[in-house]
């Protein structure tokens, strides 16, 4: 790939933004088809929408977070980086494992055919990709949240102090939470992914706000404390697109409903990052009787990329609209 291709990709990535359009249930089928953010509340299943200006959101996220009266009241106690789990010992791990055998660096002439389409969009994953970004293998390539999407999600954290990234992978979301001014507890069961995440956070200047934990979130969640839990579990690979409807209970390896239940024991304020074809009724039901959640379909380059569901005080109430 020549330099002109690289520059073109970079410009496309930096111009890509999550988008949303406004519609209400009363607008009928035509307007509903344009809806990209939907809020639903049990038992009425109310649908609302709000315009997202991701350009402005990203600018605000780069500044230290300041609480104000219009933000959702999330923080109940000072849980600043509170965890009973020991941070990951990177030095000890790298002494035991030959990191040269783990493929973390990539070049155009060495990318396998099945990863070429992800390589072409590498700058949408990390705009600083050419500064030494690390990705371990195929899973990291198709599981990293695009940078613009991750930055947009980070703007939704309100006046929280600590965000738990339960499946941090190569660190795309953790980095954006940290750059937005939050303390982040980044958990992953794979230590090699944590090595990647740590290096990537260093490149972005976000390392000082992140604590890395090597462990299975399902096993250690009771030892974690935070104001928000961000859930981006494995989806089972790109094959999820072959299903008309994605079932979080049966298709997320650890049972997506059980995962949500465990996360809710830490905090009711949950962000659930799931495939765009996920069953909406199942996600709504997680809010419980009388509960409220907000479903946001995030678009990148005019294409629906993912569904993000906000629970607890993260779901915007009418008073915040």
β-strand amount = 5-15%
The helical percent reads: 25-40%
Spatial arrangement of strands, main beta sheet: 1-7-8-6-5-2-3-4
* Unreliable stretches covering 5 or more consecutive residues: 1-37, 42-81, 317-321
Q: Main β-sheet, in a few words? A: 8 strands, mixed
Question: How many β-strand runs?
Answer: 8
Count of helix runs: 14
Radius of gyration: 19 Å
Q: Gap between N and C termini, in Å?
A: 46 Å
Q: Which overall shape is indicated by the principal axes computed on the Cα atoms?
A: globular
Mean pLDDT: 75
Structural class: alpha/beta
Q: List SSEs in N-to-C order.
A: HHEHHHHHHEHEHEHEHHEHEE
Looking at this protein, list some descriptive labels.
single chain, alpha/beta, eight-stranded mixed sheet, 14 helices, globular, disordered N terminus, disordered C terminus
Short description:
It is built from 14 helices and 8 strands. It has 321 residues and is of the alpha/beta class.
